[in-house]
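Run: sequence + S-adenosyl-L-homocysteine -> complex structure.
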Amino acid sequence: MTRGELTTFVEALGLPKYRADQIFRGIHGRRLLGFDQMTDLPKALREQLDQAALLSTLTVESKYTSSDGTRRFLMKTTDGRPVETVFIPTENRDTICFSSQSGCPLKCDFCLTAKLGLLRNLTAGEIVEQIIIVLNDVYGGGAETPHGTNLVAMGAGEPFLNFENLIKALEIMSDEHGLFIVPGRVTVSTAGIVPKIYEFAKLERRPNLAISLSAATDELRDRLMPINKRWDLDELLTAAKTFEKTLKRGERFTFEYVLLGGVNDSDEHAEQLVQLLQKYDLRRAKINLIPHNPAEQLDYHPSTAERVLAFKQTLETLGVSAYVRTPRGRDIYAACGQLAAKDVQSASFSSLNAVNRAL
Ligand code: SAH
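>> structure
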Protein backbone atom coordinates (compact mmCIF):
# COMPACT_ATOMS: atom_id res chain seq x y z
CA MET A 1 0.00 0.00 0.00
CA THR A 2 1.06 3.55 -0.67
CA ARG A 3 0.93 5.88 2.33
CA GLY A 4 -2.41 7.19 1.02
CA GLU A 5 -3.87 3.70 0.76
CA LEU A 6 -2.58 2.80 4.18
CA THR A 7 -4.35 5.86 5.60
CA THR A 8 -7.65 4.72 4.10
CA PHE A 9 -7.06 1.23 5.48
CA VAL A 10 -6.24 2.50 8.96
CA GLU A 11 -9.32 4.75 9.01
CA ALA A 12 -11.51 1.85 7.94
CA LEU A 13 -10.30 0.02 11.04
CA GLY A 14 -11.53 2.99 13.08
CA LEU A 15 -8.02 4.16 13.95
CA PRO A 16 -6.68 7.71 13.91
CA LYS A 17 -4.83 8.81 10.79
CA TYR A 18 -1.44 9.24 12.45
CA ARG A 19 -1.28 5.47 12.93
CA ALA A 20 -0.88 5.14 9.18
CA ASP A 21 2.27 7.25 9.26
CA GLN A 22 3.62 5.22 12.16
CA ILE A 23 2.96 1.93 10.39
CA PHE A 24 4.37 3.20 7.10
CA ARG A 25 7.54 4.32 8.86
CA GLY A 26 7.72 0.95 10.59
CA ILE A 27 7.54 -1.02 7.35
CA HIS A 28 9.45 1.17 4.93
CA GLY A 29 11.58 3.42 7.14
CA ARG A 30 12.60 0.93 9.84
CA ARG A 31 12.17 -2.00 7.47
CA LEU A 32 10.28 -4.13 10.00
CA LEU A 33 8.72 -7.28 8.60
CA GLY A 34 6.35 -8.06 11.47
CA PHE A 35 3.74 -5.95 13.29
CA ASP A 36 4.97 -7.44 16.58
CA GLN A 37 8.22 -5.51 16.12
CA MET A 38 6.43 -2.15 15.96
CA THR A 39 6.98 -1.45 19.62
CA ASP A 40 5.78 2.13 19.29
CA LEU A 41 2.25 0.77 18.78
CA PRO A 42 0.08 -0.51 21.65
CA LYS A 43 0.17 -4.30 21.90
CA ALA A 44 -3.56 -4.63 21.23
CA LEU A 45 -3.18 -2.61 18.04
CA ARG A 46 -0.31 -4.79 16.85
CA GLU A 47 -2.53 -7.83 17.34
CA GLN A 48 -5.42 -6.14 15.55
CA LEU A 49 -3.16 -5.37 12.59
CA ASP A 50 -1.86 -8.90 12.54
CA GLN A 51 -5.44 -10.15 12.15
CA ALA A 52 -6.31 -7.60 9.50
CA ALA A 53 -3.28 -7.62 7.24
CA LEU A 54 -0.31 -9.56 5.96
CA LEU A 55 2.92 -7.63 6.33
CA SER A 56 5.52 -9.98 4.92
CA THR A 57 4.97 -12.59 2.22
CA LEU A 58 8.36 -13.62 0.83
CA THR A 59 10.61 -16.24 2.39
CA VAL A 60 14.30 -16.50 1.58
CA GLU A 61 14.98 -20.04 0.38
CA SER A 62 18.68 -19.69 -0.35
CA LYS A 63 21.35 -17.06 -0.48
CA TYR A 64 24.54 -17.23 -2.49
CA THR A 65 27.59 -14.99 -2.34
CA SER A 66 29.85 -14.62 -5.36
CA SER A 67 33.62 -14.30 -5.23
CA ASP A 68 33.08 -10.69 -6.40
CA GLY A 69 30.78 -9.89 -3.46
CA THR A 70 27.53 -10.07 -5.43
CA ARG A 71 24.74 -11.79 -3.52
CA ARG A 72 21.84 -13.67 -5.04
CA PHE A 73 18.66 -14.21 -3.02
CA LEU A 74 16.33 -16.96 -4.09
CA MET A 75 12.98 -16.28 -2.46
CA LYS A 76 9.52 -17.83 -2.64
CA THR A 77 6.08 -16.28 -2.62
CA THR A 78 3.31 -17.67 -0.39
CA ASP A 79 2.07 -19.67 -3.39
CA GLY A 80 5.52 -21.16 -3.96
CA ARG A 81 6.69 -19.06 -6.94
CA PRO A 82 10.39 -18.23 -7.20
CA VAL A 83 11.53 -14.62 -6.90
CA GLU A 84 15.16 -13.64 -7.41
CA THR A 85 16.95 -10.53 -6.29
CA VAL A 86 20.60 -9.62 -6.66
CA PHE A 87 22.72 -7.28 -4.54
CA ILE A 88 25.64 -5.81 -6.45
CA PRO A 89 28.19 -3.90 -4.38
CA THR A 90 30.42 -1.33 -6.06
CA GLU A 91 32.91 1.08 -4.54
CA ASN A 92 30.75 4.17 -4.33
CA ARG A 93 27.24 2.82 -4.36
CA ASP A 94 25.29 -0.41 -4.21
CA THR A 95 22.76 -1.63 -6.71
CA ILE A 96 19.86 -3.94 -6.11
CA CYS A 97 18.52 -5.74 -9.15
CA PHE A 98 14.93 -6.84 -8.50
CA SER A 99 12.41 -8.98 -10.32
CA SER A 100 9.08 -7.74 -11.61
CA GLN A 101 7.65 -11.15 -12.48
CA SER A 102 8.18 -14.73 -11.35
CA GLY A 103 9.65 -16.24 -14.52
CA CYS A 104 9.16 -14.34 -17.78
CA PRO A 105 6.80 -14.71 -20.75
CA LEU A 106 9.27 -13.36 -23.32
CA LYS A 107 11.30 -15.91 -25.16
CA CYS A 108 14.62 -14.15 -25.65
CA ASP A 109 16.76 -16.93 -27.08
CA PHE A 110 19.90 -16.04 -25.12
CA CYS A 111 18.28 -15.73 -21.68
CA LEU A 112 17.93 -18.48 -19.11
CA THR A 113 14.97 -16.88 -17.31
CA ALA A 114 12.99 -17.38 -20.53
CA LYS A 115 13.16 -21.13 -19.95
CA LEU A 116 10.92 -20.74 -16.88
CA GLY A 117 8.05 -19.18 -18.80
CA LEU A 118 5.77 -16.78 -16.96
CA LEU A 119 4.68 -18.01 -13.55
CA ARG A 120 2.93 -14.79 -12.53
CA ASN A 121 3.20 -11.04 -12.06
CA LEU A 122 4.57 -9.94 -8.71
CA THR A 123 2.46 -7.65 -6.57
CA ALA A 124 3.71 -4.18 -5.65
CA GLY A 125 4.25 -5.54 -2.12
CA GLU A 126 6.37 -8.42 -3.39
CA ILE A 127 8.50 -5.98 -5.38
CA VAL A 128 9.07 -3.66 -2.39
CA GLU A 129 9.70 -6.55 0.00
CA GLN A 130 12.59 -7.79 -2.15
CA ILE A 131 14.40 -4.53 -1.50
CA ILE A 132 13.61 -4.52 2.23
CA ILE A 133 14.88 -8.10 2.64
CA VAL A 134 18.11 -7.40 0.77
CA LEU A 135 18.85 -4.14 2.64
CA ASN A 136 18.22 -5.85 6.00
CA ASP A 137 20.47 -8.74 5.05
CA VAL A 138 23.31 -6.57 3.86
CA TYR A 139 23.24 -3.77 6.44
CA GLY A 140 21.31 -5.30 9.33
CA GLY A 141 17.61 -5.01 10.19
CA GLY A 142 16.49 -1.41 9.90
CA ALA A 143 20.06 -0.07 9.95
CA GLU A 144 20.91 3.07 7.99
CA THR A 145 22.29 2.33 4.56
CA PRO A 146 25.81 3.80 4.34
CA HIS A 147 25.30 5.23 0.90
CA GLY A 148 22.56 5.57 -1.65
CA THR A 149 21.08 2.46 -3.14
CA ASN A 150 20.40 2.28 -6.84
CA LEU A 151 17.67 0.02 -8.13
CA VAL A 152 17.43 -1.70 -11.48
CA ALA A 153 14.32 -3.53 -12.69
CA MET A 154 16.49 -5.99 -14.57
CA GLY A 155 15.89 -9.22 -12.71
CA ALA A 156 13.44 -11.87 -13.83
CA GLY A 157 10.47 -10.72 -15.88
CA GLU A 158 9.44 -7.92 -18.18
CA PRO A 159 8.66 -4.87 -16.02
CA PHE A 160 6.45 -3.26 -18.67
CA LEU A 161 4.15 -6.30 -18.66
CA ASN A 162 3.55 -5.63 -14.96
CA PHE A 163 3.39 -1.87 -15.39
CA GLU A 164 0.86 -0.85 -12.74
CA ASN A 165 2.41 -2.87 -9.93
CA LEU A 166 5.87 -1.70 -10.93
CA ILE A 167 4.92 1.98 -10.91
CA LYS A 168 3.09 1.57 -7.62
CA ALA A 169 6.09 -0.17 -6.05
CA LEU A 170 8.36 2.65 -7.24
CA GLU A 171 5.99 5.22 -5.78
CA ILE A 172 6.06 3.43 -2.41
CA MET A 173 9.85 3.15 -2.47
CA SER A 174 10.35 6.81 -3.31
CA ASP A 175 8.33 7.99 -0.27
CA GLU A 176 10.50 10.16 1.94
CA HIS A 177 9.04 8.51 5.05
CA GLY A 178 10.13 5.11 3.81
CA LEU A 179 12.98 3.75 1.74
CA PHE A 180 13.26 7.13 0.01
CA ILE A 181 14.79 5.74 -3.17
CA VAL A 182 13.92 8.47 -5.65
CA PRO A 183 13.12 7.74 -9.32
CA GLY A 184 16.44 9.24 -10.43
CA ARG A 185 18.20 6.33 -8.77
CA VAL A 186 16.09 3.71 -10.52
CA THR A 187 16.45 2.23 -14.01
CA VAL A 188 13.75 0.17 -15.66
CA SER A 189 14.73 -2.11 -18.51
CA THR A 190 12.28 -3.24 -21.17
CA ALA A 191 12.60 -5.69 -24.03
CA GLY A 192 10.41 -3.30 -26.05
CA ILE A 193 6.73 -3.27 -24.99
CA VAL A 194 6.04 -0.29 -27.25
CA PRO A 195 2.67 0.98 -25.91
CA LYS A 196 4.14 1.07 -22.42
CA ILE A 197 7.12 3.13 -23.60
CA TYR A 198 4.62 5.81 -24.66
CA GLU A 199 2.82 5.53 -21.34
CA PHE A 200 6.12 5.70 -19.46
CA ALA A 201 7.14 8.80 -21.43
CA LYS A 202 4.09 10.61 -20.04
CA LEU A 203 4.89 9.96 -16.38
CA GLU A 204 5.96 12.98 -14.45
CA ARG A 205 8.26 11.46 -11.85
CA ARG A 206 9.74 8.56 -13.66
CA PRO A 207 12.85 6.40 -13.44
CA ASN A 208 15.54 6.09 -16.10
CA LEU A 209 14.83 3.92 -19.09
CA ALA A 210 16.87 1.19 -20.73
CA ILE A 211 15.73 -0.66 -23.84
CA SER A 212 17.14 -4.08 -24.67
CA LEU A 213 18.03 -4.02 -28.35
CA SER A 214 20.69 -6.67 -29.05
CA ALA A 215 20.19 -6.52 -32.83
CA ALA A 216 19.94 -3.75 -35.42
CA THR A 217 18.00 -5.63 -38.10
CA ASP A 218 14.52 -7.12 -37.84
CA GLU A 219 15.73 -10.39 -39.27
CA LEU A 220 18.23 -10.94 -36.47
CA ARG A 221 16.12 -9.41 -33.70
CA ASP A 222 13.12 -11.59 -34.64
CA ARG A 223 15.34 -14.56 -33.97
CA LEU A 224 17.00 -13.33 -30.76
CA MET A 225 14.04 -11.53 -29.19
CA PRO A 226 10.71 -12.81 -30.56
CA ILE A 227 8.92 -9.79 -29.03
CA ASN A 228 10.27 -8.05 -32.15
CA LYS A 229 7.63 -9.88 -34.20
CA ARG A 230 4.98 -8.04 -32.20
CA TRP A 231 6.68 -4.62 -32.23
CA ASP A 232 9.44 -4.33 -34.81
CA LEU A 233 12.47 -2.05 -34.83
CA ASP A 234 10.63 0.74 -36.64
CA GLU A 235 7.88 0.83 -33.99
CA LEU A 236 10.39 0.45 -31.15
CA LEU A 237 12.74 3.21 -32.29
CA THR A 238 9.87 5.56 -33.12
CA ALA A 239 8.70 5.09 -29.52
CA ALA A 240 12.27 5.59 -28.28
CA LYS A 241 12.44 8.87 -30.20
CA THR A 242 9.17 10.07 -28.64
CA PHE A 243 10.59 9.16 -25.25
CA GLU A 244 13.86 10.94 -26.01
CA LYS A 245 12.00 14.16 -26.73
CA THR A 246 10.60 14.14 -23.18
CA LEU A 247 14.05 13.95 -21.55
CA LYS A 248 15.14 16.93 -19.53
CA ARG A 249 18.36 18.79 -20.22
CA GLY A 250 21.37 16.57 -19.65
CA GLU A 251 19.34 13.37 -19.28
CA ARG A 252 20.12 10.35 -21.40
CA PHE A 253 18.76 6.89 -21.88
CA THR A 254 20.24 3.52 -22.65
CA PHE A 255 20.10 0.75 -25.18
CA GLU A 256 21.37 -2.58 -23.92
CA TYR A 257 23.11 -4.81 -26.38
CA VAL A 258 24.01 -8.35 -25.30
CA LEU A 259 27.12 -9.39 -27.21
CA LEU A 260 26.78 -12.92 -28.56
CA GLY A 261 29.93 -14.41 -30.05
CA GLY A 262 29.71 -14.76 -33.84
CA VAL A 263 26.02 -13.72 -33.86
CA ASN A 264 25.69 -9.95 -33.41
CA ASP A 265 29.22 -8.77 -32.60
CA SER A 266 30.98 -7.99 -35.91
CA ASP A 267 32.12 -4.51 -36.98
CA GLU A 268 29.36 -4.60 -39.55
CA HIS A 269 26.80 -5.18 -36.80
CA ALA A 270 28.23 -2.19 -34.93
CA GLU A 271 27.92 -0.04 -38.06
CA GLN A 272 24.32 -1.17 -38.58
CA LEU A 273 23.60 -0.18 -34.99
CA VAL A 274 25.00 3.32 -35.51
CA GLN A 275 23.03 3.72 -38.75
CA LEU A 276 19.86 2.67 -36.97
CA LEU A 277 20.34 5.29 -34.24
CA GLN A 278 21.08 7.90 -36.91
CA LYS A 279 17.98 6.97 -38.90
CA TYR A 280 15.79 7.78 -35.90
CA ASP A 281 17.94 10.71 -34.86
CA LEU A 282 18.58 9.24 -31.43
CA ARG A 283 21.32 11.51 -30.11
CA ARG A 284 20.86 11.01 -26.41
CA ALA A 285 21.08 7.26 -26.37
CA LYS A 286 24.11 5.46 -25.03
CA ILE A 287 24.85 1.82 -25.57
CA ASN A 288 25.56 -0.58 -22.71
CA LEU A 289 27.38 -3.59 -24.08
CA ILE A 290 26.65 -6.67 -21.98
CA PRO A 291 28.95 -9.65 -22.49
CA HIS A 292 26.76 -12.72 -22.77
CA ASN A 293 26.48 -14.85 -19.65
CA PRO A 294 26.50 -18.41 -20.84
CA ALA A 295 24.62 -21.43 -19.50
CA GLU A 296 24.48 -25.03 -20.56
CA GLN A 297 20.90 -24.71 -21.86
CA LEU A 298 21.76 -21.72 -24.06
CA ASP A 299 23.19 -22.07 -27.58
CA TYR A 300 25.35 -18.95 -27.34
CA HIS A 301 28.80 -18.05 -26.18
CA PRO A 302 30.31 -14.71 -25.18
CA SER A 303 32.32 -12.63 -27.61
CA THR A 304 36.07 -12.61 -27.09
CA ALA A 305 37.49 -9.72 -25.10
CA GLU A 306 39.13 -8.34 -28.29
CA ARG A 307 35.80 -8.45 -30.15
CA VAL A 308 34.03 -6.61 -27.32
CA LEU A 309 36.65 -3.86 -27.46
CA ALA A 310 36.60 -3.65 -31.26
CA PHE A 311 32.78 -3.40 -31.22
CA LYS A 312 32.90 -0.62 -28.66
CA GLN A 313 35.58 1.21 -30.63
CA THR A 314 33.59 1.03 -33.85
CA LEU A 315 30.60 2.57 -32.08
CA GLU A 316 32.70 5.32 -30.53
CA THR A 317 34.56 6.13 -33.74
CA LEU A 318 31.16 6.66 -35.34
CA GLY A 319 30.12 8.99 -32.51
CA VAL A 320 28.01 6.76 -30.27
CA SER A 321 28.90 6.44 -26.56
CA ALA A 322 29.34 2.84 -25.54
CA TYR A 323 30.13 1.25 -22.18
CA VAL A 324 31.14 -2.33 -21.56
CA ARG A 325 29.41 -3.75 -18.50
CA THR A 326 31.35 -6.06 -16.23
CA PRO A 327 29.47 -9.27 -15.53
CA ARG A 328 28.82 -9.69 -11.80
CA GLY A 329 28.02 -12.85 -9.89
CA ARG A 330 28.40 -15.26 -12.79
CA ASP A 331 29.69 -17.98 -10.47
CA ILE A 332 26.42 -18.06 -8.51
CA TYR A 333 24.01 -17.67 -11.43
CA ALA A 334 23.32 -14.07 -10.47
CA ALA A 335 24.40 -12.28 -13.68
CA CYS A 336 22.08 -10.87 -16.38
CA GLY A 337 19.96 -13.53 -17.97
CA GLN A 338 20.95 -16.21 -15.45
CA LEU A 339 18.08 -15.95 -12.99
CA ALA A 340 16.25 -19.22 -13.37
CA ALA A 341 15.61 -20.23 -9.77
CA LYS A 342 18.77 -22.30 -9.88
CA ASP A 343 20.04 -24.16 -6.91
CA VAL A 344 23.80 -23.75 -6.84
CA GLN A 345 24.35 -27.36 -5.85
CA SER A 346 22.75 -28.70 -9.03
CA ALA A 347 24.87 -30.59 -11.54
CA SER A 348 24.51 -28.03 -14.32
CA PHE A 349 25.90 -25.44 -11.96
CA SER A 350 29.28 -27.12 -11.60
CA SER A 351 29.59 -27.31 -15.35
CA LEU A 352 28.84 -23.60 -15.55
CA ASN A 353 31.72 -23.00 -13.20
CA ALA A 354 33.91 -24.85 -15.64
CA VAL A 355 32.68 -22.53 -18.42
CA ASN A 356 33.42 -19.51 -16.25
CA ARG A 357 36.93 -20.65 -15.46
CA ALA A 358 37.56 -21.10 -19.16
CA LEU A 359 36.45 -17.52 -19.93
N1 SAH B 1 12.89 -8.07 -19.55
C1 SAH B 1 13.70 -6.89 -19.40
C2 SAH B 1 14.53 -6.87 -18.12
C3 SAH B 1 15.28 -8.13 -17.71
S1 SAH B 1 16.66 -8.64 -18.63
C4 SAH B 1 14.57 -6.69 -20.62
O1 SAH B 1 14.61 -7.56 -21.46
O2 SAH B 1 15.16 -5.63 -20.75
C5 SAH B 1 17.96 -7.51 -18.27
C6 SAH B 1 19.03 -7.50 -19.36
O3 SAH B 1 19.76 -8.73 -19.40
C7 SAH B 1 18.44 -7.32 -20.76
O4 SAH B 1 19.14 -6.31 -21.45
C8 SAH B 1 18.72 -8.67 -21.43
O5 SAH B 1 18.85 -8.55 -22.82
C9 SAH B 1 19.99 -9.10 -20.76
N2 SAH B 1 20.27 -10.53 -20.83
C10 SAH B 1 19.39 -11.54 -20.92
N3 SAH B 1 20.03 -12.73 -20.96
C11 SAH B 1 21.35 -12.46 -20.90
C12 SAH B 1 22.52 -13.26 -20.87
N4 SAH B 1 22.46 -14.59 -20.89
N5 SAH B 1 23.71 -12.64 -20.80
C13 SAH B 1 23.79 -11.29 -20.73
N6 SAH B 1 22.72 -10.49 -20.73
C14 SAH B 1 21.51 -11.06 -20.82
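>> summary
Residues 124-139 form the longest helix (16 residues). Confidence is low (pLDDT under 50) at residues 347-359.
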